[in-house]
């Protein structure tokens, strides 16, 4: 066994600008910026935001706009999308948006790309009527983005300005082995959405590592699983705080995307057995508890996955408690050692 310090594993954050009961979207967005400023001081590598639409509890639909708001308020943390749903957009427009960000904040912008709609099918149709055709074009559109960001595109008829020559690093996001094949073929880093779709995590990482082809951007495979974390002073407090997360995911199951509610003392008063089973299946890789509890469980998870980096999502009703959870996780990652083979 080789001894590998958790200090060698980067840790990052996924944020959706979640709107809680009694909040406005502006409140949620300002809290996201405040969170980014804190986690920058706590050693987080990236602050990513995800594109979602037509959801009363998420304010990150205009992802690139919010990323500029966050990047302006921070100094060193990488800021990016986790992700932009590329079939919703023209590759040229995304290249211009993220090229503008990269021009303003050099060497700090990431572009994570997904192919899911980030919403319901009716809204997806409203966003782009030919979306399904664009889903099939996803691999080609990723390559087109790379071309727009390259200095070699200067002689092309269509150019991304700003954007050209910025070489914004691309990441492939996914929740199945389909995305693993693509990330491997293109030689791009791979992020898996195990925080809500855990079933194919290990299979996808195996496919990616076995099929990986080196590229100009990346010479060796690089995997980043996303997990949920709710950390507090005690296991009991963390479990109580996590009931807001569970209620939010219950909304995913029922289709009711209402603002995230405060914690409850007993989830059995809120959900039925079918909803409970569905939520618990989605939240398989959710780590809830005191610093010691989360440390032990996350350490084991990182050993099992061989992650190069881990991204956490933390959904807590109270902003102060959310900040505290992120601080506790940073302490875990800075202090512990991980045995790897």
TrEMBL record:
NCBIfam families: oxido_grp_1 (TIGR03558). This is LLM class flavin-dependent oxidoreductase. To bacterial alkanal monooxygenase alpha and beta chains. Residues 22-308 form the Luciferase-like domain. It comes from the Bacteria. SUPFAM superfamilies: Bacterial luciferase-like. It holds the Pfam family Bac_luciferase.
């Amino acid at each position: 066994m080789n001894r590998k310090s958790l200090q060698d594993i980067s840790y990052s954050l996924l944020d959706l600008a979640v709107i809680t009961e009694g909040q406005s979207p502006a409140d949620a967005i300002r809290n996201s910026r405040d969170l980014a400023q804190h986690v920058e001081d706590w050693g987080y590598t990236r602050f990513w935001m995800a594109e979602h639409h037509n959801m009363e509890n998420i304010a990150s639909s205009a992802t690139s706009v919010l990323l500029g708001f966050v990047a302006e308020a921070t100094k060193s943390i990488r800021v990016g999308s986790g992700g932009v749903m590329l079939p919703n957009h023209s590759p040229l427009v995304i290249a211009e948006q993220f090229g503008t960000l990269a021009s303003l904040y050099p060497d700090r912008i990431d572009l994570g790309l997904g192919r899911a709609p980030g919403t319901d099918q009716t809204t997806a149709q409203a966003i782009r009527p030919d979306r399904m055709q664009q889903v099939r074009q996803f691999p080609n559109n990723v390559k087109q983005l790379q071309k727009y960001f390259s200095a070699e595109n200067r002689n092309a008829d269509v150019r991304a300005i700003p954007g050209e020559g910025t070489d914004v690093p691309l990441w492939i996001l996914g929740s199945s082995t389909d995305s693993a094949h693509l990330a491997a073929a293109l030689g791009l880093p791979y992020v898996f959405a195990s925080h809500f779709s855990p079933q194919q995590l290990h299979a996808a990482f195996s496919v990616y590592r076995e099929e990986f082809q080196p590229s100009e951007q990346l010479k060796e495979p690089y995997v980043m699983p996303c997990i949920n974390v709710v950390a507090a002073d005690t296991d009991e407090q963390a479990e109580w705080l996590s009931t807001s997360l569970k209620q939010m995911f219950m909304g995913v199951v029922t289709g009711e995307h209402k603002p995230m509610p405060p914690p409850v003392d007993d989830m059995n008063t809120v959900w039925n057995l079918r909803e409970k089973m569905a939520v618990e299946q989605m939240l398989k890789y959710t780590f809830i508890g005191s610093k010691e509890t989360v440390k032990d469980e996350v350490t084991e998870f990182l050993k099992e996955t061989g992650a190069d980096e881990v991204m956490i999502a933390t959904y807590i009703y109270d902003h102060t408690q959310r900040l505290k959870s992120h601080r506790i996780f940073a302490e875990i990652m800075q202090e512990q050692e991980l045995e790897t083979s």
